[in-house]
């Protein structure tokens, strides 16, 4: 087995993002450089297409009763969604099933 390393990125807060963008005009497109693996610097360019607060159910911790049927709590992750920039791309041989075909 190969070597491992602990990856601990500094995750930005909304306040830090606001501060970084304070002088950027409102109609400026946002590009996001997505690392293909932890600690990589050969980023793929993506564009920001959506935001949503995603609710995650937190499992019980060691101090909570074992076998609890309900999640121990909920946490909201403020999530930015990206897509590939506009352009012409090779179509995949098979499109993924996104479950949005509707009733037939």
Low-confidence stretches: none
| Helical coverage, percent range | under 10%
Which strand-content bin applies to the residues? 25-35%
Strand order of the largest sheet: 1-2-3
Structural class: mainly beta
Q: What is the number of beta strands?
A: 3
Rough outline: extended
Q: pLDDT average, as an integer?
A: 80
**Terminal CA distance:** 48 Å
Largest beta sheet, briefly?
3 strands, antiparallel
Computed CA radius of gyration, to the nearest angstrom: 20 Å
Determine the number of helices (DSSP H or I, runs of at least 4 residues). Answer: 1
Q: Which series of helices and strands comes N to C? A: HEEE
Tell me what the structure shows.
The protein is mainly β. Helices cover 8% and strands 29% of the residues.
Question: Which features would summarize this protein structure in a list?
Answer:
extended; three-stranded antiparallel sheet; 1 helix; 104 residues; mainly beta; 3 strands; 29% strand
């Amino acid at each position: 087995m190969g070597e491992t390393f602990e990856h601990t990125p500094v995750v930005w807060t909304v306040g830090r993002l606001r501060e970084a963008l304070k002088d950027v005009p409102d109609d400026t497109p946002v590009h996001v450089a997505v690392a293909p693996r932890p600690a990589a610097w050969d980023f793929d360019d993506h564009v920001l297409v959506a935001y949503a607060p995603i609710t995650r159910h937190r499992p019980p911790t060691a101090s909570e009763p074992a076998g609890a049927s309900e999640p121990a709590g909920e946490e909201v992750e403020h999530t930015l969604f990206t897509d590939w920039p506009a352009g012409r791309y090779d179509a995949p041989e098979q499109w993924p099933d996104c479950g949005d075909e509707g009733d037939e």
